[in-house]
Each structure stands twice: as structure tokens, then as C-alpha cells.
Design goal:
Elements lengths: L9 H12 L2 H18 L4 H28 L15 E4 L8 E5 L4 E8 L7 E8 L8 H16 L11 E6 L3 H5 L4 E8 L16 E2 L9 E2 L9 E4 L7 E8 L8 H19 L8 E5 L3 H5 L4 E7 L13
Antiparallel strand pairs: 1-3, 2-3, 2-4, 4-6, 5-6, 7-9, 8-9, 8-10, 10-12, 11-12
Helix pairs in contact: 1-2, 1-3, 2-3
Length: about 325
């Protein structure tokens, strides 16, 4: 009998069609089945099956390229020559730098994917600092949260001088156990503006009359010390005031000596300076001093500040001898 013409495998046709349409999983399955059955049944279509595999590979390569491009677009932002954000880019939060502004806060937290933009455009978030925690072993969930809060508090202290301090809320991000075990030690310190939106960096909102205790210098005059505020407001010494800084100095370098030893060093230094400064002149009614706590000391702060205070009436001129 005459030879029966070989039929074209329907599986091979299906492999080519689904491969061209980008249905990769179906195309690969049809192509493999067609190739396995082609020899046993005398069916044609081996070329079609291979074509389906080739078409699928094109889709796979294109998909990978799209993923790479997309990943690249959320791990970097457009910056000008000075390094400032120049456009509006969706970006994973951890790829922002200290000083970058963004939007993306939700009611109680922040999204991982945010929109970075120049600080002159309306925004509600800013990266205050990025730092790395020390240690090899994971310290535990509570301990790492406490370490992060302490470190970010120190890095954010200068924001206490902002005109908008009442509307600023800190948000800190730290690695979980999985990230820590993979080598991630990075902490991100953020601040959220809750008063609407800002159109400037928070650093531009600092009030020069407000100072942290270790920023005060000899001659600075203040009203009554406000125990509820971290930054104190300085005033002209010709205006009514109660307190004046008469000296500041650095405590002896070295490891943290303990709270009592730090206090003794500050007291001794301030009393010696007061004795010299006010010899032959009226001394303040009260003298007292401030000195760094352990976390401040370990961050490099060795400053002691000496204060003179009037107890019964406000002053309208400097208490420092000329």
C-alpha cells in the first residue's frame, strides 16, 4: 500500500502558538510532549516544537530584562551633581540617603516603596540618618528596638530646634533576625511631618535661638530652664533672664567613667572656673552644671557646661565680669 503522509503534531502546533503568545509554561509543556511523541508516531512538527521553545525563551529573556529594569528603577533615584534628589521616583526606602525627602507614610507606618522627591516639593517624610548597629549575635527583638531608638534619638536631637518640633514624629527601621543573620546591620532613622506637607528640608526649619544643652556657650542667657523641652530658648542678655552660661569645657577623654565620676569632673571644673571668673566680682546666686550621659559620651560628646542662676529676680544684664 502507498505510504500514508505524516501528520503534523497538534502538540507541536500548540507549542508554537502558545510560545508566540507568551504562554511560556504551556508552550514548554506542549513542546516537550511533541518532541517525545514525534519519533514514535511518525508525526511531523519537530521544528514547530523547537520554534515554540525558542519563542518561549524570547519571552523569558524579555521578562527577565523587564524585571531587571524595574528593579533598577526602584533601587536608585535621579540626582543632581550635588547628590540631591532631582526628580520624583518610586524607590525602596532603604536606598534613600540621609537628607532625602519623600512621601509614602500611611496612618501608622511607612511603606517600603515610597516616592522620593526634592525637598522643595510637598512631602511628609525625611531620612534623618542611616547607621549600622554593632555586634555579631542577634540581640533579640526588644534589644534591637531599644538600640535603634537610642541611636536614632541621638542622631535626631538637632531636630528639637525645629520650629515644627510639635509636628515631627520619629519612625525607625531596623533589621529583623533573618536580615541580621544575612549580615544586615543597617538602621534607618526617619521623621514624619504630621502638620500637612513641608516644602523645605527640616534642617532649614531650625530656630537659631533654640539650642541643645551642649550647644550653649559662655555668655548665652536663658529664661527659666524648661524641663519639658530638650532645646532651650536663648534670649538677649539685656532682656529679662534668669540663667547665663559662664563656662564650658571638655571632660577628660577615655571610656565612660560612670555617672558619678562624670558629675564629679563637671562639678570640679565648673567650680574652679567660677572661682577664677568671679574673683572680686559678685558671684551668681546658684551655680550648676550639665555633663554627658553614657550614650552621649560613647558618641564622642565630652562637653560640660557651667551655669549661673539668679534665684530671686530676673536679670537684665550679663552676670559675667567684663
Amino acid at each position: 500500500p502507498p505510504d500514508v503522509p505524516a501528520r503534523t503534531s497538534r502538540l507541536a502546533i500548540a507549542a508554537l502558538v502558545t510560545g508566540v503568545l507568551g504562554l511560556v509554561l504551556l508552550a514548554v509543556g506542549f513542546a516537550i510532549a511533541a518532541l517525545l511523541r514525534a519519533g514514535g508516531r511518525g508525526e511531523k512538527g519537530k521544528g514547530l516544537a523547537i520554534g515554540g521553545l525558542v519563542a518561549s525563551s524570547v519571552w523569558i529573556v524579555g521578562g527577565l530584562a523587564a524585571v531587571i529594569v524595574a528593579a533598577g528603577s526602584v533601587t536608585s533615584v535621579d540626582r543632581d551633581e550635588s547628590g540631591q534628589v532631582a526628580g520624583e521616583d518610586r524607590v525602596v526606602l532603604e536606598y534613600l540617603r540621609a537628607g532625602d525627602c519623600f512621601t509614602g507614610f500611611e496612618e501608622e507606618t511607612t511603606k517600603i516603596l515610597v516616592t522620593a522627591l526634592p525637598c522643595a516639593r510637598p512631602h511628609d517624610g525625611e531620612v534623618v540618618a542611616k547607621l549600622k548597629l554593632p555586634g555579631d549575635e542577634y540581640p533579640g527583638d526588644r534589644e534591637i528596638a531599644e538600640q535603634t531608638d537610642e541611636a536614632c534619638f541621638q542622631k535626631s536631637l538637632h531636630l528639637q530646634r525645629s520650629r515644627y518640633i510639635k509636628d515631627l514624629e520619629p519612625y525607625n527601621l531596623w533589621p529583623d533576625r533573618t536580615g541580621w543573620d544575612a549580615g544586615d546591620r543597617e538602621v534607618i532613622c526617619l521623621v514624619r511631618y504630621t502638620g500637612g506637607t513641608l516644602t523645605t528640608s527640616i534642617g532649614q526649619t531650625l530656630d537659631p535661638s533654640l539650642k541643645l544643652w551642649d550647644e550653649l556657650v559662655p555668655g548665652d542667657c536663658l529664661g527659666k530652664w524648661d524641663e519639658e523641652e530638650i532645646a532651650q530658648r536663648t534670649v538677649s542678655c539685656t532682656e529679662p533672664h534668669w540663667i547665663q552660661v559662664y563656662a564650658n569645657f571638655k571632660l577628660q577623654a577615655g571610656s565612660y567613667p560612670g555617672e558619678k565620676a562624670a558629675e564629679r569632673g563637671a562639678r570640679r571644673g565648673c567650680e574652679q572656673r567660677a572661682a577664677r571668673l568671679f574673683r572680686g566680682h559678685r558671684a551668681p546666686d546658684l551655680t550648676w552644671w550639665l555633663y554627658p550621659e553614657k550614650i552621649e559620651w560613647e558618641d564622642g560628646n565630652r562637653t560640660a557646661v557651667c551655669f549661673g542662676e539668679s534665684q530671686d529676680r530676673p536679670l537684665t544684664k550679663s552676670m559675667l565680669p567684663r
